[in-house]
Amino acid sequence: MAIKVTMPRLSDTMTEGTVATWLKKVGDKISEGDILAEIETDKATMEFESFNEGTLLYIGIPAGETAPVDSLLAIIGNEGEDVTALIAGDAAPKASEPKAETPAANTEAPAPAKAATELPKGVIVVTMPRLSDTMTEGTVATWLKKVGDAVAEGDILAEIETDKATMEFESFNEGTLLYIGIQEGNTAPVDSLLAIIGPAGTDISGIADNYTAGGTTTASTPATEEKAAPAAEKATETVAETSNGRILASPLAKKIASDKGIQLTQVKGSGENGRIVKSDIENFTPSVQAQPASTATAAAPKAETAAPAAPKVFVPAGEVFTEEIKNSQMRKIIAKRLAESLFTAPHYNLVIEVTMDDAMASRATINTVPDTKVSFNDMVIKACALALKKHPKINSQWKEDAIIINHHVNIGVAVAVEDGLVVPVLKFTDAMSLSQIGASVRDLAGRAKNKKLGPQEMEGSTFTVSNLGMFGITEFNSIINQPNSAILSVGAIVEKPVVKNGQIVVGNTMMLSLACDHRTIDGATGAQFLQTLKQYIESPVTMLA
């Protein structure tokens, strides 16, 4: 009996998924546990395995297409079984057709019904792809093809920047690039007209007008692009740079160049259209460029001789220099969510100073145990978990009709990454030992910086800890990571004079700042939580009770 396989929900916030790659094709035998496809979410690309066995009879979402959760993904059944009834009414082609899994034209170019019926023969409309389930718009970082270029199936058309990464977008069709709808550096919503591909010489002006009418992107005409093409080709022979100054380079080449401190403007690209690739960076030998300095010094004597009677005023040689960096999609999402948190949740901050002498001695003793490494941050996280069990109102979230009290403790740990900030989550933190917390935090932080975390590892936090003490910051206030009701900011340990038993002695202290949502946490409740937290940190042995 045939079984319908639907688009899985791979995280609690996932509403759509993109089929990155099909690892099976129609007619293949499927065993339970076989990997059917790779599904891309906003956090990661995950392997999706089959829970059934049989023959793959139908593919409902071709590679590269995005579809809502629970959409028909595939049908598995007995070889030769008729599945027409299962897919009746579905927009996808029937499984019995030989090209059921490969009509990529429809997946890449979902156009309005009216426009689709008027397309000339062989013309394909390519729209801005949805590369993650939270993506609402994308930025064209680089065009790797220009109007008039021949495009083969699998060629990289452009690099598109999302909220998580810059991804190469390949063509699922072949023909000639007739039209570019979104210029380099421009941002447009998902499904906006990106490009048109078809037979050379096809008149597509009416199609472009249908898509750009009422839109916000600036479209170039084929005639303009074709006239500019020879000049662009000449420019890219010497410098791998587009007309607006954007460097043509693969993401990997950019990363290696950044790591090595190499300026991409000095590198000549050997790739398509002068594109800089990995080998160009690895083989690059920097050269000394002293021409600007010599020009400046040569011009100086002329300036002095032009006005010999004027007083000599020293003016350093230099130039006014500014740089505009386009906001990445990750940075846009961070800005949006933090602004929502700050402007919707009434924040207030409570600050307390903690004596760290006993904590420092306890940590030194703990770390003498072989294969054990515990940081002060680990001790703070453990203390927070225990304090939250005693003060569950801190471990809450606000809803319009109720306050949700979480009696489980999942602590999110803020981790700085190259493009922004992520918050991996320690599930059931109160049940973990100090050494388990330390090992887990190191693992999660390492994978976060390499973008290897799964979406489920960044969801479900009930409280957040942010530590800038390792950067020497003694005190700061954080913005609440909603839907949490509070976030703890941890400063550096400072050696300073303190009063003990009426005597001034040298001691070590640390500042803790608790940002609270006043809708759920009153000041007295937050203060009581900090008092308990202080007791745990100042006497670590109490955390073992």
UniProtKB/TrEMBL annotation:
Domain Peripheral subunit-binding (PSBD): 248-285
BP terms from Gene Ontology: pyruvate decarboxylation to acetyl-CoA
Required co-factors: (R)-lipoate
UniProt xrefs under Pfam families: 2-oxoacid_dh, Biotin_lipoyl, E3_binding
Enzyme Commission (EC) number: 2.3.1.-
Biased amino acid composition, Low complexity: 101-113
UniProt xrefs under PROSITE patterns: BIOTINYL_LIPOYL, LIPOYL, PSBD
GO cellular component, one term: pyruvate dehydrogenase complex
All residue ranges annotated as the Lipoyl-binding domain in the record: 2-77, 123-198
Signal peptide range in chain numbering: none
InterPro entries: 2-oxoA_DH_lipoyl-BS, 2-oxoacid_DH_actylTfrase, Biotin_lipoyl, CAT-like_dom_sf, E2/Pdx1, E3-bd_dom_sf, PSBD, Single_hybrid_motif
UniProt-annotated stretches for the region Disordered: 91-113
GO molecular function: acyltransferase activity
Main EC class the enzyme belongs to: transferase
UniProt keyword annotations, A-Z: Acyltransferase, Lipoyl, Transferase
UniProt keyword annotation of Cell inner membrane present: no
Family of this protein: Belongs to the 2-oxoacid dehydrogenase family.
Record's function text: The pyruvate dehydrogenase complex catalyzes the overall conversion of pyruvate to acetyl-CoA and CO(2). It contains multiple copies of three enzymatic components: pyruvate dehydrogenase (E1), dihydrolipoamide acetyltransferase (E2) and lipoamide dehydrogenase (E3).
Name used for this protein in its record: Dihydrolipoamide acetyltransferase component of pyruvate dehydrogenase complex
Organism per entry: Flavobacterium shii
Taxonomic classification: Bacteria, Pseudomonadati, Bacteroidota, Flavobacteriia, Flavobacteriales
